[in-house]
Design brief:
Helix 1 runs antiparallel to helix 4, helix 2 packs across helix 4 and helix 4 packs antiparallel against helix 5. By secondary structure, the chain is mostly helical. The longest helix has 46 residues. The model has no long low-confidence stretch (mean pLDDT 86). Helix content is 83%, strand content 0%. It is built from six helices and no strands.
Amino acid sequence: METEIAAVIVTGIVSIVGALVAIVTVQGQAEKEVGDIYDQMVKFRVEHPEVLELSRKWQAGNFAKVYGDGGSLDPQWVTYYSYFELCIGYCNSSILAWYGFRLGRRSFKHHHKPLIKLVLTENYPILKTIQEDGENGK
């Protein structure tokens, strides 16, 4: 009887340790994935420092310059929009990893959440345009 109880206790402890190792592994993998996207974003920003200035100058008509509507393709806005897509990718990946319980609470609350707020603030003009277009059915 005592041997059976000990075996159950040991099995329970091994199961708990295994679950904790799995959680740490998943969180480490998610942290790496999100970190890689953030690194791409920072590298792009270093290679194209003009994107921060362009982010403040965004206007609704710039989508035509990004997609070349009417032959008006503008490389600087294409560059900025590429950066914006990296930013949104980072935000989405971080949030999805958080809600999927793949990022630790401390990592998200103290690292990624403030960065998401910063990235969204830096890109507010384009986000506002997208929101307004959505409200107007465009």
